[in-house]
Amino acid sequence: MNRSTDDSTQTGIDPDERALEEHQQPTPIRDESVRDLKPRVVRTHLSLFVRDPEASAPWYEDVLGMEVTARGPQWVFLSFGKKHHDIALIRAEEGAAMSGIGLQHYGLEVDGSLDEWRRLYGMLLAKGVPVVKTTDHKVGFGLYFTDPDGNRFEFFHETVTDDEEGKRILGLYGAPSDPIEVEPLHS
Asked: Is 147 in contact with 130 (CB distance < 8 Å)?
């Protein structure tokens, strides 16, 4: 199926992207040594479809403490303060359904003590942010919540800081997500 530029703009696809024709093969890899190349990721960012980027951005500023760094007619970029952007809010196509198949959650490892993490829990409750669950992952604690468009986030408090030990523990327990009761702190 070939999309026109007008059609791709309406569906939220980057207008510079080009869909392959129905029977067209991708460009072949000529150098076989490239197959073993592994990316060395130094930065990440997340792009989310939302109903209205301008309406959603204040939630990200208020709840996650982000700042808007750029705007366009169909998007808003936000930063935690060190990078040019950490999250991009992209206007979803008209009538897009919430949740379903796609991103399960975006985990945000937070700095500070367990009490600081519990204060973040209290802050979410005070702001009326829907909290989905609190979990023990055996390498840290997770606090899951959703934005106004139903995108799920996690504030993660790491308790095992050695990555090799963390891998061992996750393997031993089967990457657990055990429900726990947590008392939020409101001060």
From this structure: no
42 DSSP β-pair partners: none
Other C-beta atoms lying within 10 Å of the C-beta of residue 88: 19
DSSP string, 118-166: HHHHHHHHHTTPPEEEEEE-SSEEEEEEE-TT--EEEEEEES---HHHH
pTM for this prediction? 0.73
Cα separation, 85 vs 70, in Å, equals 8
Please check whether residue 89 is in contact with residue 46, taking contact to mean a CB–CB distance below 8 angstroms.
no
How is residue 111 written in tokens? Answer: 């700095």
Rounded CA-CA distance 152/104 in Å is 7
Shortest CA distance to 176 belongs to which of 131, 144, 130, 142? 142
Place of tokens 């479809």: 49
Q: Which helix (H) or strand (E) holds 50?
A: strand 46-50
Amino acid at 8: S
**Strand ordering across the sheet containing 46-50:** 46-50, 87-91, 75-79, 67-72
DSSP bridge pairs for 154: 107, 144
For residue range 18-46, what is the model confidence (pLDDT) as tens digits?
Answer: 777 887 777 666 666 666 767 777 778 89
Say how many CA atoms lie within 13 Å of 132 toward its Cβ.
Answer: 16
